[in-house]
Amino acid sequence: MGMAVNLAAPHIFLPTSSSITVRKQYNLMYNSQNFFKISSCSKFKNPIRVINCSKVSTASVSTEKEALLPLKVSEINEKCKKWVWKGYTINYFVYPEINNDTSNPPLLLIHGFGASIAHWRRNIPILAQSYTVYAIDLLGFGASDKPAGFAYSMEVWAELILDFLDEIVRRPAVLVGNSVGSLACVIAAAESTRSLVQGLVLLNCAGGMNNKAIVDDWRIKLLLPLLWFFDFLLKQKGIASYLFDRVRKRDSLRNILSSVYGNKDNVDEDLVEIIKKPAEDEGALDAFVSIVTGPPGPNPVQLIPKITLPVLVLWGDQDPFTPIDGPVGKYFSSLPSQLPNVNLFLLEGVGHCPHDDRPDLVHEKLLPWLANLPAS
Fold this sequence. Notes:
Number of helices: 15
Mean pLDDT: 81
Radius of gyration: 19 Å
Distance between the termini: 30 Å
Helix content: 25-40%
């Protein structure tokens, strides 16, 4: 679901209730920017649109739910396909499987930290009414390979995305990402020289693969020695295994998910299983440690100005990992007044994973934006 700040890992596998000590370490490691609240959302001078959940028509929301129910996780799993990339097997999904209408660009959905294709189960049926929708499990997540000893990086995931567009989609597409998946989309769009990307949709974008990314904030820099010490601890196999075993327990996952969702009703058994099942695969622990302790990757502050494509930013204002008043959120909130290609909407009462937390609010802004994209 998606971790400098990131802090972009909504579904980070760490316990929230079983141990005060572990919880403090977790908060330091993955939510360090929350120690330093900078300003209240109401003080922003930039043109941010706020979508208030309570003001959304219940009739339209209920109609959407009745018309198109989420895809079943079992259906997604059964219909997934395999693609071999650099010798690794990558899991992906396309819906509908046959669509001869090429008037609209295809969409490629990229999950965040710890999540997978099924995290988009509430969105795919709506989007597929007008678009061919692809979704992919990044290397190290979901049902994709989790190679032992692999050095994960943001650049690797961005390269995977571009190669997938080139080899499987074969048309310019709109990238839609959540959390660390958003940052991978930003890197792919900034680096693409093949006109593969037609637009970007960023849902609570991460500042880096982990907390060692710095977005010009001296207070975060003060924490770096502690973060490096945490990296050292996680590289001890016994400590990492103990923590990982604790977090992937069903109750721990449910508590973590509840802490990052504004709409607690959507923290259901399907969601818990979506996160839990891949975490039990061989190689999942290695992936977790590599991602948390690896280099944070390219910084969105340097990348976004290079992108001239249309960009839609949707941000849940109740996100504890990348809060709108933290360094990453403040940067993105400043973009509409600086870059004409960027639109941003703040979603009130929504957490780190807007597409699954309040899909109705996301679709309300995403669908008109997609409909108004210039032709490729």
